Amino acid sequence: MKNVRKGFTLIELLVVISIIGVLATIVLGSLNDARSSARDAQRKRDIKTIQTALEIYHLDKGQYPVSNNGIHTYQDSWSTFLDGVVLPIDPLDEGTSPTSGGYSYRYQSRTPQNYCDHQAYILVYNLENEDGNSVEDGITLCDGSASPTYGNAFVVGVSPRE
Question: Rounded CA gap, 20 and 109, in Å?
């Protein structure tokens, strides 16, 4: 009588489980990269949307909007910032300032001379896969100085009109 083996050995099972684990790790890593890239693309679209809303506001009112302290974020009723226009918020919306490495959007237009009395503004935001400290990052203010830098956060906006 022959001894017939049915099933797998422990070694065979461990090898298969290890291979599945490695493949799962690779797939999950790729998914996380794809998700962060998608959030970055959404952030770039959001910033363009906010800039368009700000330009429409400027056309209607003759200046960019300002809050009491000159800084406006989603925390300051961002959704009703521009006369009821609903503006987007960051996909992660961590509730922390982009100037401290968080994921949110921050708007700034101030009364001081270097902001041309509300004729210039900046938007500050972060991306997950890019650093915002390039030469093109930022605007020129009315007094000829560069806009403030915020570490790796991106700074965009409108330089004073000539």
Answer: 54
Radius of gyration of the chain (CA): 25
For residue 60 the two structure tokens come to 């209607």
Encode pLDDT of 142-155 as tens digits: 767 766 666 667 77
| Cross-strand partners of 74 | none
pLDDT of 162 higher than 50:
no
User: How far is it, in rounded angstroms, from Cα 66 to Cα 81?
Assistant: 9
Contact 119, 143 (CB under 8 A): no
**Which contacts of 29-34 are long-range, i.e. CB under 8 A and separated by 24 or more positions?**
none
For 20, the 3-state DSSP assignment is helix
Nearest to 156 by CA among 82, 54, 39: 54
> How confident is the model at residue 73, as a pLDDT?
60
pTM: 0.71
Question: DSSP character for 114?
Answer: G
